[in-house]
UniProtKB/TrEMBL annotation:
<dbReference type="InterPro" id="IPR041431">
    <property type="entry name" value="Mvd1_C"/>
</dbReference>
<feature type="domain" description="Diphosphomevalonate decarboxylase-like N-terminal">
    <location>
        <begin position="12"/>
        <end position="168"/>
    </location>
</feature>
<dbReference type="InterPro" id="IPR020568">
    <property type="entry name" value="Ribosomal_Su5_D2-typ_SF"/>
</dbReference>
<dbReference type="InterPro" id="IPR029765">
    <property type="entry name" value="Mev_diP_decarb"/>
</dbReference>
<dbReference type="GO" id="GO:0019287">
    <property type="term" value="P:isopentenyl diphosphate biosynthetic process, mevalonate pathway"/>
</dbReference>
<dbReference type="Pfam" id="PF22700">
    <property type="entry name" value="MVD-like_N"/>
</dbReference>
<dbReference type="InterPro" id="IPR014721">
    <property type="entry name" value="Ribsml_uS5_D2-typ_fold_subgr"/>
</dbReference>
<dbReference type="InterPro" id="IPR053859">
    <property type="entry name" value="MVD-like_N"/>
</dbReference>
<keyword id="KW-0444">Lipid biosynthesis</keyword>
<feature type="domain" description="Mvd1 C-terminal">
    <location>
        <begin position="182"/>
        <end position="308"/>
    </location>
</feature>
<dbReference type="GO" id="GO:0004163">
    <property type="term" value="F:diphosphomevalonate decarboxylase activity"/>
</dbReference>
<keyword id="KW-0456">Lyase</keyword>
<dbReference type="GO" id="GO:0005829">
    <property type="term" value="C:cytosol"/>
</dbReference>
<dbReference type="InterPro" id="IPR005935">
    <property type="entry name" value="Mev_decarb"/>
</dbReference>
<dbReference type="Pfam" id="PF18376">
    <property type="entry name" value="MDD_C"/>
</dbReference>
<comment type="similarity">
    <text>Belongs to the diphosphomevalonate decarboxylase family.</text>
</comment>
<keyword id="KW-0067">ATP-binding</keyword>
Length: 332
């Protein structure tokens, strides 16, 4: 309906990188220095409603029922990209809900901005391809580019200066290899150093930056092959390698970035001990203290029990792999 009501709602899920993104070649456009590969989750979600009003001059943003100045600025910057495309200056009411803790290393910005771009584009009746949505989501939050798609996803580094080719594409559907993920929560405090600031510090001061960039293509190729062959052991080894390499890179910054607490480390040891006993599981950790343990479906109960047992673990969530961003009923 080209004449309104300029209202839409969408759901997106967070994704977890197995081959990590760390570093920007263009901070304004959120262009990465390396490609990355992720899995999109299913039971953690963001649901976002967007309603544009032609006579309104500002945006009103609520997150989990509360207004948040810092997030509202990012939402407005993101909606500006859509308003530019549509040639309108209308303000919007945005209401977004997460069913998991925000800003604690669980990639709420990935699901949040994927859902916002999708709902906003629908509300303005913009007919955008998934690739165009991925580029727009990337500009709002890098890793959001990947939450446009479900299952196993690769986000390309891209060659162009304008970033139109730094876009995510699906590698394999979730159903084709339905791994599961246990997320061990070791702290609910908001993180102190966000990923953009951390990446910036790393690029300026870490002596390992060039080694990180030089070795990424080979890691991406290994992970891509492992995913296409459904080779769990190969994916486990390359994913833990990418995670530890990213953290080593960040730790070598000045001052060094330490995203882990003691329980984070204990969980990593516990996952490795399980794997040594033959349990198909591996860990990954992002710019925060939570540990994500990726495992075969048959191992999920054992992995959850083992992580719950680690001193300092507050809670363990359990999720499968899910679909990409999609429209949902308004007022859902
Ligand atoms: O795009 P951001 O700001 O959410 O940064 C993501 C950085 C990591 O989570 C550490 C790695 C990744 O690829 O998701």
């Amino acid at each position: 309906d080209a004449h309104g009501p300029f209202h839409a709602a969408s759901q997106a899920q967070p994704n977890i990188a197995l081959i990590k993104y760390w570093g920007k070649r263009d901070a304004a456009l959120n262009l990465p220095v390396v490609g990355s590969i992720s899995i999109t989750l299913d039971s953690l979600w963001t649901r976002t409603q967007v309603r544009f009003t032609p006579e309104q001059t500002y945006d009103r943003v609520s997150l989990n029922g509360r207004s948040d100045e810092a997030e509202a600025k990012r939402v407005t910057a993101c909606l500006n990209l859509l308003r530019e495309r549509a040639g309108v200056a209308w303000g919007a009411d945005v209401a977004s809900q997460n069913n998991f803790p925000t800003a604690a290393g669980l990639a709420s910005s990935a699901s949040g901005f994927a859902a916002l771009v999708h709902a906003g584009a629908n509300a303005l009746n913009l007919q955008l391809s998934d690739a165009e949505l991925s580029v727009l989501a990337r500009r709002c939050s890098g890793s959001a580019a990947r939450s446009i798609f479900g299952g196993y996803v690769e986000w390309a580094h891209g060659q162009r200066a304008d970033g139109t080719d730094s876009v995510a594409t699906p590698l394999l559907d979730a159903d084709a290899w339905p791994l599961r993920v246990a997320v061990a929560i070791t702290s609910t405090a908001a993180k102190q150093i966000g990923s953009s600031e951390g990446m910036n510090r790393t690029a300026r001061t870490s002596p390992y930056q060039s080694a990180w960039i030089d070795t990424q293509e080979a890691d991406l190729a290994t992970a891509r092959d492992a995913i296409h062959a459904r080779d769990f052991d190969a994916l486990a080894l390359i994913s833990e390698h990418s995670c530890l390499k990213m953290h080593a890179l960040a730790m070598a910054s000045q001052p060094g970035l330490l995203y882990w607490n003691g329980a984070t480390m204990e969980c990593m040891h516990r996952v490795r001990a399980l794997r040594q006993q033959g349990v198909p599981v591996f860990f990954t950790v992002d710019a925060g203290p939570q540990v994500k343990a990726v495992c075969a479906p048959s191992a999920i109960e054992q992995v959850k029990a083992a992580l719950r047992d680690v001193p300092g673990v507050l809670d363990v969530h359990d999720t499968g792999l899910g679909a990409g961003v999609r429209a949902i009923a308004k007022d859902a």
